[in-house]
Amino acid sequence: MLLDQHGRQLTYLRLAVTDRCNLRCRYCMPAGGIDFAPRSELLTYDEIFHLADVLAELGITKVRLTGGEPLARRDLPVLVQGLAERFPTLAMTTNGVLLPQYLDELAAAGLTTYNLSLDTLRPDRFFRITRRDEYAATRRALELLLERGCNVKINVVVMRGQNDDELLDFVALTQEHALDVRFIEAMPFNDDDGNHDVFVSYPEMLDRIRLAHPELVQCSEQGSSAVIFRVPGARGRVGIIPAYSRSLCGSCNRLRLTPKGTMLNCLYSTKGLELLPLLRAGIGQYELAELIQAYVYGKYATGHETERREQQGNIFASMTSIGG
Ligand code: SAM
Ligand code: SF4
Predict the structure, then answer these.
(1) Alpha-carbon span 239 to 179, nearest angstrom
(2) Does residue 1 sit within a domain?
(3) pTM greater than 0.85 (yes/no)
(4) Which positions ≥6 away from 178 have C-beta within 8 Å?
(5) Residue 27 φ then ψ, to 5°
(6) Does residue 177 sit within a domain?
(7) In 3-state terms, what secondary structure has residue 244?
(8) If I label 177, which of 16, 49, 169, 303 is the partner at 20 to 30 A Cα–Cα?
(9) Maximal C-alpha separation, the chain
(10) Which ligand 1 atom minimizes the distance to the CA of 23?
């Protein structure tokens, strides 16, 4: 079992499979990209499977593939299939651009749960936010996911002056379709200006939604990273993720693995457990399990505490090298 010093059991792994991406979202990466990891420094699929066997044994039950853009990693369905055999719940966070061409293969490999990042419903804005002209592909991905009855959540990073006037348009989408929309507070992870000018807080988002929908009902789930609501009669739900305020850390059950094999207890961690050299040196399963258990035990109570103890400045690396 993976228990931390505060008695929380970790059951959920966020696995970033690459730091490369086919978009350049302003809140995530600078226009020129980042210093991407050489392929030889990424965990191979065999190394991930070795680790996955240990983590499944230690009680991880849910894995989310993320990145960078997970579909930018070659032969991703091979990884999906191997992970689906080991974990009861498998999900992916994707920008959707490549999803239409992979959807059949991913479904065959066992993946039906997706978080699709879509920050605007207006094509001209999509280009401004992502610096790439891929709105049509992402919307197509959404249509296909809904047609096939997949479990879909749309992730929206809310930014003042860029898309915060679309909050109610996204809420309307949950009234029409059986999907969840999750509004995310912008975090200072873009290797650039820290997103401070565009920040919209969780309470402000909620006030603005409540003004139009005073009948909003809260229906949160234990352990979720979002506070969840439903407009009565709506087919889907609306969540708000206080990613910067960090008010839900108390029930965190998440562990992270970066593409280069660093295990992190928290999104705000900078000091992790470097697994790649251990895996390449042929570490056995028992020894690996013990090291991971000892690392996880040290997980701090909140993201604020992690930041205080581990961060030096206030501008962090791009989210693409952590996985969100
Ligand atoms: N490329 C995939 C995608 O965009 O869905 C997966 C990786 S992305 C880093 C994972 C999630 O983190 C996305 O939903 C993205 O919107 C979110 N994200 C990235 N940078 C962020 C930031 N600075 N603040 C809040 N969320 C961020
Ligand atoms: Fe790429 Fe996702 Fe970052 Fe956008 S948020 S640049 S899609 S990794």
Answers:
(1) 11
(2) no
(3) yes
(4) 146, 235, 236
(5) -80, -5
(6) yes
(7) coil
(8) 16
(9) 58
(10) 1
Number of domains in the chain: 1
**Ligand 2 center–CA 273 separation, angstroms:** 24
Structure tokens given for 130:
């992502």
Question: Phi, psi (5° rounding) for residue 182?
Answer: -125, 115
Q: Which two tokens stand for residue 195?
A: 């997103």
Q: Which positions ≥6 away from 159 have C-beta within 8 Å?
A: 27, 119, 129, 186, 195, 198, 199, 200
Taking only the tens place, the pLDDT of each residue in 182-236 is 999 998 876 566 677 899 999 999 999 999 999 999 997 777 889 999 999 999 9
Q: Could you read off the pLDDT of 95-111 as tens digits, one per residue?
A: 999 999 999 999 999 89
Q: Which atom of ligand 1 is nearest to the CA of 28?
A: 20
At 3, list the tokens: 């228990």
Which residues lie with the beta carbon below 6 Å from any ligand 1 atom?
21, 27-28, 66-67, 69, 93-95, 117, 155, 157, 184, 186-187, 189-190, 195, 243, 319-320, 323-324
Residues with CB under 6 A from ligand 2: 21, 23-25, 28-29, 67-69, 95, 117, 319-320
Find the CATH number of the domain harbouring 68: 3.20.20.70
Domain range for 41 is: 12-321
- Asked whether residue 222 is domain-assigned, the answer is yes
Nearest to 243 by CA among 171, 139, 155, 160: 155
Q: Whose CA is nearest to atom 8 of ligand 2?
A: 68
